[in-house]
Amino acid sequence: MALSFDCAKHKCGENTLASITPRFLKLPENSPLSLRDQICEVVSAAITSKSLAHDRPLPSCRELAEQLQVSRNTVFAAYNRLVDLELLVSRDRSGYFVAPQMAALNTALEDRELSEKDAAPCPVSFPSNNLMPIVNPLDWNAYPYPFIYNQIDPDLFPVDGWRECTRQALGRKQMPTWANDSVESDSPQLVQQLRQRLLNTRGIYADEDEILITLGSQNALYILGTIFAQSGKPIALEDPGFFGARNAFRLSGSELVGVAIDDDGIIPDAIPTGCQLVFTTPSHQFPTMVTMSQQRREDLLKAAVDKDFLIIEDDYEAEMNYVAKSSPSMRSMDKTGRVIYVGSLSKTVSPGIRLGFIVAHRDIIREARIARGVMMRHPPTIVQEIVALFFQLGHYDSHLRNIERRYNKRWHAMNSAITKHLSMLDRTKSEGGTSFWLSGPKGFDASELAVRLKDKGVLVDRGQDYYLNYNDSRSFRLGFAYVPVSNLEAGIEIIADEVTAML
Amino acid sequence: MALSFDCAKHKCGENTLASITPRFLKLPENSPLSLRDQICEVVSAAITSKSLAHDRPLPSCRELAEQLQVSRNTVFAAYNRLVDLELLVSRDRSGYFVAPQMAALNTALEDRELSEKDAAPCPVSFPSNNLMPIVNPLDWNAYPYPFIYNQIDPDLFPVDGWRECTRQALGRKQMPTWANDSVESDSPQLVQQLRQRLLNTRGIYADEDEILITLGSQNALYILGTIFAQSGKPIALEDPGFFGARNAFRLSGSELVGVAIDDDGIIPDAIPTGCQLVFTTPSHQFPTMVTMSQQRREDLLKAAVDKDFLIIEDDYEAEMNYVAKSSPSMRSMDKTGRVIYVGSLSKTVSPGIRLGFIVAHRDIIREARIARGVMMRHPPTIVQEIVALFFQLGHYDSHLRNIERRYNKRWHAMNSAITKHLSMLDRTKSEGGTSFWLSGPKGFDASELAVRLKDKGVLVDRGQDYYLNYNDSRSFRLGFAYVPVSNLEAGIEIIADEVTAML
User: Residue B130: how many CA atoms within 13 Å on its side-chain side?
Assistant: First the structure.
């Protein structure tokens, strides 16, 4: 009875259904949204695209429910939601109509044919660039053994803590803080937390104007590359090294020089004179995971003065140490203002949030802030505020301990499995991080290995992509942040079988 | 009784308080957090910075409550929260202790003196750049009449709808989507919504691979500037014009050419041959608000073919039209693939979220995607997902109508007030947008006006900042997005008084 009353109240014309193009009425496939929200989605989209008549009612709840194969109450809930949003109006005894203000939309172009441009060739052509982005298969997480870099284990992420921070950050009294444009200043809360909880543990003291928030460490390197490119001097990088840095400095217009590394890290004597900057990853060399020795750090700082270069210290995975304590950062050792420190929250919070930072002399930060403003104004305020709370409420510290514990376990499992099954390969000495660097004998083709392994469900990073000057294809990298600990040894065994077959 | 039991259970040593440096025990001033969360913040920060002894208990709830002047239950709640986070442990009859795993922190450096570097001069110096960021006073919203550009009225923002989208986007089953790194691909949901609800209303059809999500339109312009800079050809811009575009193209290394505008928009005949790109804002010319006429659009498209340049169409405030309907976008008129369309969600959602997009030929998008990856990988996944839901659930359409209504009212109020009080100035013909462009007679100094008005609580944007080649100081701009409608006329009257005094 209630239903027929509802129906009588919202009486609909006979031709209603015909007034809607059927394709707008199909619910999306595999949508994670609730049925009510899916209906809101398709109906509001139909309104925006002017596919609904304005002088006739929408289908009645009963009709639409039948057509979409959902309950009448669900359609009723969706319609009422759209009334709340003022996209529909409900008229007693007539039904639901598109709100008059939507009919008067200034923005929609009526009866305009969308121009398809597929036929036109591109009027410009780009010279091939040498930025070589390293691309994992898009379905990498469908592989049983994805030993690849830069993904986090989603099970580790403290979703509830993150949600709590988001809820608090979105409180109405916080709104003006994050809704507005703020080219110049970063979130004071986030800067404060970085100083107190992150830089502090790396022995670094920095004033507010010596810190710049960036959109991840990749963005930090690109900004630094840009402000130093005008000097016209080359930038030296570890070789093998971080392709992200290489690409950032290349795109921002600098000439690159590769510098060899040994078991103590980058070799200062191998740095040519005349360089503007030297990029290094002392905590764990990317990609070999070598930790720069204390003596080498001192030598490198001395070379910076002697040869008049600045050092970019990318404090890559500084938190992940399982055998020894973290070494002090080079920035904390430097008395000359020559070390520019770059950090990231991608590994310790999540790569999807895209937050990093630069600590440097305030003159450099001032220049970097201007460049950042021109490139993108600032990282989204809302993300900065959520992450600040994530620190403030203690979630970061708690999460970091969990990551360390989990990766520690995996690192030792990897260490054992590699010792047991891959002893025919050279392994670079490592005390932490989330990967291992392995090399075959002279003539070994790790790229071929990577191809073979992919067929067996194992993804590894081939080493040759990390080289700038040398073209060494003997090495490969095994990242273990994403492979569950129970699968690690099985994966290593598959690798061992292929390596053995290739030797 | 319950309290003394509690106290007995968590018995504390006499010297406990002395074990904490008092400065860590002060609650932050003016914190928006709850008292419990403030205590979590200071105690967890003290743990991170190793300021708490590990072999002695923390102050008891009673002691800390007295010291901080809060209730004992609040301290109790905070301590339990930190136990949940595994930062503290509770030991019966002994009290709360720092968790043993926190004591074994690898990352914290013990007894390390933080090195202050204030004394060291910067080892490099930067030549002064000509990027001239336009900076509003940081306390601009404390002025009663902030007639400035690029801020939104926070009262307009649909906080509840945004919260709902955030909550849904953060559901656990969504987690892998947004926590992971996704250099290559943008949120398919967001791309789909842009196509269906935004590009559609501008007459634009685009495939997925013809769209790139950027960190706001500023970032879109910088990316485009970068990929075209290697051509070595100059870029032409409207003069006066958008300083954001000027800075983006300048920083990415192109030579700039200013092109005069008239009442129909940019003048195609004034564009010199040999330019790679022409930047234009046809919907509402920035900063004069002139809408480019239909004939002018056709002439400009023809000139693009004749002189072999591409057009960047920044569809600035296309949604905000109060007198006439929106004109079709140039991208929708173009049959030659020469128009690159740039859009933003800053005005229609919020500037703090930093989302924009490029629509162009897929060859251009492919190149832009590589450049974006090197500059910053991608805009934060979580923000993309929230905004996609904001569209999907109908909030965007609803919000856009509200903005239009509100700004429409303000525009007409401004229009009347300017007609009534500022008829001694030239006003550029405008049919929409969120600002007006006014010019005094020859010799009038609008920069002087801006300085005088600031003292009277009125902020205006002086015109000379918008010029590239010309140095016209007769004009100024009045943005009304932030000034409440009830204050508009009073503000205009103050401006009129000053203008009169200066004439």
Answer: 10
Task: Determine contact, residues B37/A392, Cβ cutoff 8 Å.
Answer: yes
Q: What are the pLDDT digits (tens) for B446-476? A: 999 999 999 999 999 999 989 988 778 899 9
Cβ proximity of B311 and B319 under 8 Å: no
Q: Which domains does chain B have, with CATH numbers?
A: 2-103 (1.10.10.10), 140-155+398-502 (3.90.1150.10), 159-393 (3.40.640.10)
Considering just the CA atoms, what is the radius of gyration of chain B in Å? 29
A214-231: per-residue pLDDT in tens? 999 999 999 999 999 989
Using an 8 Å CB-CB cutoff, list chain B residues near A251. 226, 371, 374-375
Chain A neighbours among B 65-124 (CB < 8 Å)?
Answer: 81-82, 85-87, 101-102, 105-109, 112, 114-118, 120-124
Question: Residue type for A237, please?
Answer: L
State the DSSP string of A226-290: HHHHTT---EEEESS--HHHHHHHHHTT--EEEE-EETTEE-GGGSPTT-SEEEE--SS-TTT-P
Q: Closest Cα of chain A to B442: distance in Å?
A: 33
Helix (H) or strand (E) holding B426: strand B426-427
Residue ranges of B 360-399 with Cβ closer than 8 A to chain A: 361-364, 367, 370-371, 373-383, 392-395, 397-398
Regarding pTM above 0.95, the answer is no
Give the residue among A135, A223, A356, A372 at the shortest CA–CA distance from B215: A372
Rounded alpha-carbon distances, angstroms, from residue B228 to B249, B310, B367: 9, 10, 10
Rounded CA gap, B345 and B388, in Å? 12
